[in-house]
Amino acid sequence: MARIIGYIATSLDGFIADPGETLEWLTTRRDMELGEYDYNLFIKRIRTVVMGRTTYDWLVKQNIPWPYADQRTIVVTSRALLDPIGALETRTDIDALIAELRGYNDGDIWMLGGGQLQMAFIERGALDEIEIYVISHLLGGGYPLFPPTGFAKSIRLLSATSLGAGCVRLHYSFEAAAA
To answer: Of 67, 84, 159, 169, which is most buried by a Cβ count within 10 Å?
Structure first.
């Protein structure tokens, strides 16, 4: 069975993008030593990418070649995608999507993008693990790692790794945490 995982960076104050929706604060960093945790190694083990409509629309605005040509891509949206970029599928029902994803056995599934869809999966017990890269930068505002939903749950820290002066990798499992 495929694992459903998160892989995301956040500023120290808990934002994944600045108020202008840019990631320049992250992409221009030169003080991180990601090594075995580098995105280019991570994406090679991903067979399916799942994203919400906001993430899809953000990717379209970047005016770049479709970055997930080697993966099955699913966009969760209630609105039709007009002239979609890249080969992708759409889904509207999160519960049905989770059941579908649980049937895959051809590689890991990445919950790409913001925390809204990830939180929907967490609330349903459908996210297996998450890697959060905390970047030593304060944004002071922007798009939060996870939206406040009132959902609470203890999760298990698998590891915490310093990746140079600019980043710490936190790896969590959503399996039942020891009390």
So the answer is: 169
Q: Given CA atoms 17, 18, 21, 26 in this order, what sign does their dihedral have?
A: negative
Q: For 9-59, what is the HEC assignment?
A: EEECCCEEECCCCCCHHHHCCCCCCCHHHCHHHHHHHEEEEEEEHHHHHHH
Say whether pLDDT at 178 is over 70.
no
Domain that holds residue 126: 4-173
pLDDT tens, 22-62?
999 998 888 888 999 999 999 999 999 999 999 999 999 99
- Cα separation, 66 vs 167, in Å, equals 27
- Beta strands per DSSP E along 105-166: 108-112, 129-135, 143-144, 156-162
**179 in any annotated domain:** no
Dump pLDDT digits (tens) for 106-156. Answer: 999 999 988 899 999 999 999 999 999 999 999 999 999 999 999 999 999
Return the closest-CA partner of residue 114 out of 31, 46, 34, 50.
Answer: 50
Does residue 143 lie within any of the structural domains? yes
